[in-house]
Design goal:
Blueprint (H helix, E strand, L loop, with lengths): L1 H61 L1 H19 L8 H10 L5 H8 L4 H12 L5 H6 L14 E8 L2 E6 L4 H14 L4 H7 L5 H4 L11 H13 L8
Antiparallel strand pairs: 1-2
Helix pairs in contact: 2-7, 5-10
Length: 240
């Protein structure tokens, strides 16, 4: 009996060991599948984030240096004219600029010539061109979605019509030309008079974008969207 009890105990212990080994084997077989699923779940948002970051990086490389160049060019012109308003040698040039910007006085001319902060120009370019991914930018260098009303100048049609009306956008020879025309649009249009007046008082982009509601059909929300882009991407750093 003692021998039989020991024999049964041995069989019982052996069975426990075999079961433990088999259970471990099953767990090890399942682990790679679980890890793979976890990695696949994490990979999707990571890929989207990487793509978004890559788009912004491409935008920063291609667009921001062009905005820098145009802004510096316009700022030099503003400083030159503001310092020579009474200089007789600049009379003809000032008259030409007043005509080009529809300015009736020296004060209006200076409001037109002073370039607004780079952060706003960058944020609008990002929004209007979908971070340089839009068809208008790729095919026409049109960063800011500026419309064309002159059929004799280069332009590109929008993919959607407004009723029976075809919407046309300007086609530019270069990115810099698009940026110059954008600055000129804000500098001379009656729709942005309040914007021009305010930029003579402050360079705060968050205050200035509040005066750009006429730039988009979404109205006040446009200023909110610009504010978010400037703040989230720290575009205000380009104004220093």
């Amino acid at each position: 009996m003692k021998f039989l009890s020991k024999y049964l105990l041995f069989i019982y212990l052996a069975a426990l060991i075999i079961f433990a080994i088999y259970d471990t084997f099953l767990v090890e077989r399942e682990q790679p599948s679980n890890i793979s699923n976890i990695q696949e779940t994490k990979k999707k948002p990571t890929n989207k984030m990487l793509l978004a970051n890559q788009n912004k990086k491409n935008f920063s490389t291609l667009v921001i240096p062009a905005i820098d160049r145009v802004h510096d060019e316009l700022e030099d012109q503003y400083n030159e004219i503001s310092q020579n308003l009474t200089n007789i040698l600049y009379r003809d040039k000032i008259l030409e600029l007043k005509e080009a910007y529809s300015a009736e006085s020296d004060e209006e001319l200076l409001m037109a010539l002073k370039p607004h902060p780079k952060s706003i120009a960058i944020a609008q370019a990002a929004m209007e061109s979908a971070w340089a991914k839009s068809r208008f930018f790729k095919e026409a260098n049109n960063l800011y979605g500026i419309w064309s009303v002159n059929k004799n100048k280069p332009r590109i049609s929008a993919s959607k019509q407004r009723g029976e009306r075809v919407v046309w956008l300007k086609r530019y020879p270069s990115i810099e030309d698009s940026i110059r025309d954008y600055y000129k649009t804000l500098a001379r249009s009656k729709a942005y008079k309040d914007f021009r007046e305010l930029k003579m008082q402050t360079d705060n982009p968050y205050l200035l974008v509040e005066k750009l509601e006429n730039y988009s059909e979404i109205g006040d929300k446009y200023a909110d969207d610009l504010t978010k882009i400037i703040r989230y991407n720290k575009l205000y750093l380009y104004d220093k």
